[in-house]
Amino acid sequence: LSVDNDEIKFADDYTWVKYKKEVIYLKGNQQDVVRLLCESYHQGEPALSWDSIHTTMVNKFEDENQNKKPEEQKTFNPESMFQVFKGNPNAWELLITQPTKGFYRINLP
Question: Which of 11, 42, 56, 58 has a Cα at 20 to 30 A from 49?
Answer without folding.
Answer: 11
